Structures are given as structure tokens and as C-alpha cells.
Amino acid sequence: MPDYKFFPMNELPEKSVDDPSFSKTVLVYDKTDNNHVFENLGYYDFESSEWTHFGDESMQLICWCYVPDPKKFISSNDLEIALHRGYRP
Question: Largest CB tally within 10 Å, which of 1, 15, 27, 81?
Fold first, then answer.
């Protein structure tokens, strides 16, 4: 299992190539107890100087990491496709 580098919330992610007023999308983590870890996709808004996440729940953000890129793993493995509930071709 690869080691992921985690960052404190005051260390900001790289800016998005498509829109530099926002950061790249990252995984943000909630301040929880040691038995539970809660995360969501999020980003930093450089214009408003604040963090945002894509979920509906309220979170106390404690750290973040870049979203892993699976391209190398996918291209080097013979993977079986699984369809999610409600899949429409």
C-alpha cells in the first residue's frame, strides 16, 4: 500500500490548471476520534481564502491529501469491471 502525504489545513494545495482561483480537488478529512475517519472531496478557494467540500454535512477540517491517480495501476492490471446500482449505458 502506498504512503500518502498528508498536509495540515494551513498548507495549501496547488492551484487548478483549469481555474487558478481554486485549488486542485483534494481529499479533506474531518476531526474525528481515533476509531473513525471521515473524508470528502474538497478544494481551497483562493479568492475567498476558505476551504469548501462537496458534501452536505458539516465538517471540522483537520488535514488533506491529494487524490491518488489510478492510471498506472489500471493500465498495469487486468481488472474486472463492476457496475454500480442504477448503472445506465
Answer: 27
